[in-house]
Amino acid sequence: MDADFVALSAELGSAALGRPDQRRLLIATAESCTGGWAAQVITHTAGSSAWFERGFVTYANDAKVEMLGVRPETLEKHGAVSLETAAEMAVGALKNSNALISLAITGIAGPTGGSPGKPVGTVCFAWCMKDVAPETDRQHFDGDRESIRRQATLHALKGLLKLACSARSMP
């Protein structure tokens, strides 16, 4: 695992655990195009079972519906690669786990599958905290399949770290 991911894994662990007097922030992931890469990075750090609760790899639309509760209407209207789907994935990861924070990643890593409206490299993200509306983001990454997936994983985990740190600063 490269140094960026190793450092991010350790930072996430520290942020999720917090101080001894704070409740730990259990994490859940919901991934599509990254195929579990975010979960792999999080669990790279020894002891990660103290902050990583579970990961969902929901590559197929049926899996998004069955495992995360993404509404079929959302998929029909907006598609699997949309902010709306990412938001429902993040919320579903929390509803179907004991986690307090989650991330979701859905995108088109290529080399095929893109369209004029959603070219290869389009990735949608969501980060969510229990009982708080998800924050979403859409990015376009360049490169081959592996590069797009790596960039998406890095972006998702940086967003999760930001959420964990902001959750720690809330009263």
Outline the structure in words.
The structure is a single chain. The chain is an alpha/beta fold and 171 residues long. It has a single domain (3-169), classed as CinA-like (Maf protein, Alpha-Beta Complex). It has 6 helices and 5 strands. It has a 5-stranded mixed β-sheet, with helices on both faces. Strand 4 and strand 5 (135-140) form a beta hairpin. Helix 1 (3-17) packs parallel to helix 6 (145-169). The radius of gyration is 15 Å and the shape is globular. The N and C termini lie far apart (36 Å). The model has no long low-confidence stretch (mean pLDDT 96).
Give the neighbour order of strands across the main sheet: 2-1-3-4-5
Number of alpha- plus pi-helical segments: 6
Distance between the termini: 36 Å
CATH topology: Maf protein
Range of strand content: 15-25%
User: Residue ranges: pLDDT <50 for 5 or more in a row?
Assistant: none
Estimated helix fraction:
40-55%
Number of strands: 5
Question: What are the salient characteristics of this protein?
Answer:
171 residues; alpha/beta; Maf protein
Briefly summarize what is shown.
With 171 residues, the protein is an alpha/beta fold. It has helices spanning 3-17, 37-42, 61-68, 72-78, 83-95, 145-169; strands spanning 27-31, 52-57, 101-107, 122-129, 135-140.
Show the helix and strand layout.
Layout: H1 3-17, E1 27-31, H2 37-42, E2 52-57, H3 61-68, H4 72-78, H5 83-95, E3 101-107, E4 122-129, E5 135-140, H6 145-169
Helix pairs in contact: 1-6
